[in-house]
Amino acid sequence: MKTLLWFQRDLRTQDNPCLQWALQKGQPVIAVYIYSPDEDAPWSEGSASRWWLHHSLQKLSAQLAEFNIKLHFFKANSRDVLNGLFKTGEFSDIAWGNRIEPYRRKYETQIEKLAQDNGIQVKRFNHDLLKTPANFLTASQQTPYKVFTPFYKKLRYELDLNSVTNLQHRQCSPCSHFDSSPLQNSCALQELSLLDKHAWHEKLHRYWNPGETSALNQLDHFIETALNQYTEQRDFPALDGTSNLSPHLHFGEISPAQIVQQIMPLILDSSNKNYTEAESFLRQLIWREFARYILWHFPQTIDQPMNRKFNAGFWHADNALLKTWQQGKTGIKIVDAGMKQLWETGSMHNRVRMLAASLLTKNMGASWQQGARWFWDTLVDADLANNSMGWQWVAGCGVDAAPYFRIFNPETQASKFDKQNSYTDKWLKEKNTVNEPIIDISSSRKQALERYNTYIRHSV
Ligand SMILES: Cc1cc2nc3c(=O)[nH]c(=O)nc-3n(C[C@H](O)[C@H](O)[C@H](O)COP(=O)(O)OP(=O)(O)OC[C@H]3O[C@@H](n4cnc5c(N)ncnc54)[C@H](O)[C@@H]3O)c2cc1C
C-alpha cells in the first residue's frame, strides 16, 4: 500500500509534520498538488500570488525528489481527484496540512469523510499555527479573544515555557521506495496555467525568490542584517528593515515554529544585545497568529465587518475614485508611491499599506472590501486572514480596530517616516507621476469624522 500526501499551503520539506508522518509509515509516498480555483472562489489566488505559487511548486517538486517522492499536479476539483485516488485501492493513508479559511475547513471535513468511507486513514496537521485556536480561550469566560494584547500576553507566556524545548525541527530521512508511476489525469506544472500569458510578472524575479531554501536564507539574512534595528527601522518604507517573509509564510515555505525556534534563544538570552528587537519581531509574528485565530473563530470576517454596527451600507463605493487610488494617481504622494511599489513588486511596506487603506476607506469613503480585493489580486503575500484583519483594523470596523476617529494624515506620516522623500522619490520621480491631489486631506478628514460619529450614534 501507499501513503498519499496532499500539499496545500505547506510547500516545504523541513518542519512539515505531514511529510514526516508519511515518511515514518515506511511505505511509498505519493505527493499531489491540486489546483482548484473554483473551490476557492471568490478567493482563489490573484495574479501575483499565482506567479509565486508556480515557482514555489517548481522548487517543492525538486526538493521532494531528494526525498524519493514524486509530486503530481492536477487541475481539477480536489474532491474528484482525491476520490479517484481513493478508489484505486492503492492507498492506505492520506495526510494533509489544514487550511484556515472557513470555506476550506468545511470542504476538508467532507474530504475526510470521503476518505474514511473508502477505508483510508486520515492524518491532518495544523502546520501553520503556534496554537490551535479552538482551545485557546479567555481564562475568565472561556470565550475567544477579541483583543490583541491579552491574546499576545497569553501566547507569549506559553511560548516562553514551551517553545525552545517543544518546537523541535522535524527533519526526515528520504523514502526508501521511489514510486514514479503516473497518476491518471495528472498534468505538468505548466498546464496549471498559473502564470499569466502576458509576461508582466517577469519583473517579480527582481524582488523575490519563492521556495523553501530562499525562505530559510531570507530568515538568516534578516537576523544577520536587519534584526538589530528592527524596532527603529520597521516603520520606514525606504529602508529594508523588515524580514520580507510574508509570502514565504503564506505559502508555508517556512513555518512560524521554525521562525520562533530561531528567534526565541535571542530573546531568552538577555545579555544578547538584540533581545528587545527579537521580541518586537516576535510580536508581529503573533499578529499573524491573531489574524488566523480571528478567522477561525469569526469566519464571517472575510467579507463582513467584525463590528456589526457597520453592516448597513456605511461605505459608499465610488468606482472612479477607486480606480485613481489603484493607479497611484491620487496626488497624495506617499500613497501613490505605495501603489506603484505594489504594482511593480507585488508588495507594499506595512506602514504604507495602512496609509493607503486609511485614505481609501476614511478620506475617500470607499469600502474596505474594495481595497482588500485590489490587494488580493496584486500582493504576492495576499492572505485572507492578514488582509481582512489589516483592512478592517484600518477602517475601524474590525477586531481590536484602530479607533474610528484615528485617521492617518498621510502628509504628517510622510514627514515622519519618509523625511527625505527617499521612498516617494524612488517610486514616483523616475516615472514622473506626481499628480495634483484629488482630495483635500483636511476637509475629507472632517467629513469622515462626521460620518463615523453620526453612524456610531445612530446605530447604538
Ligand atoms: C491593509 C493591510 C493589508 C494587509 N494585507 C496583508 C496580506 O494580505 N498578507 C500579509 O501577509 N500581510 C498583510 N498585512 C500585514 C503586513 O503589512 C505584512 O504582513 C507585512 O508588511 C509583511 O512584511 P514583512 O514580512 O517584512 O513583515 P515583518 O515586519 O518582518 O513581520 C514578520 C511577519 O509577521 C507578520 N506580520 C507583520 N505585520 C503584520 C500585521 N500587521 N498583521 C498580521 N501579520 C503581520 C507577517 O507574517 C510578517 O511576515 C496587511 C496590512 C494592512 C495594513
Based on the coordinates given, report the CATH architecture of the largest domain. Answer: Orthogonal Bundle
Biggest sheet overview: 5 strands, parallel
Question: Superfamily at the CATH H level of the largest domain?
Answer: DNA Cyclobutane Dipyrimidine Photolyase, subunit A, domain 3
Question: Hetero groups bound?
Answer: flavin-adenine dinucleotide
Low-confidence stretches: none
Write the H/E string, N to C: EHEHHEHEHEHHHHHHHHHHHHHH
Q: In DSSP terms, counting alpha (H) and pi (I) runs of 4 or more, how many helices?
A: 19
Beta-sheet strand percentage? Answer: 5-15%
The 3D shape can be described as globular
Question: CATH topology of the largest domain, which one?
Answer: DNA Cyclobutane Dipyrimidine Photolyase, subunit A, domain 3
Q: Provide the spatial order of strands within the biggest beta sheet.
A: 3-2-1-4-5
**Top CATH class of the largest domain:** Mainly Alpha
Mean pLDDT reading? 92
What is the number of E strands?
A: 5
Overall radius of gyration: 23 Å
User: Which class of secondary structure composition applies to the elements?
Assistant: alpha/beta
Q: Please indicate the count of domains.
A: 3
| Alpha carbon gap, first and last residue | 61 Å
Write a brief structural summary.
The protein is an alpha/beta fold and 460 residues long.
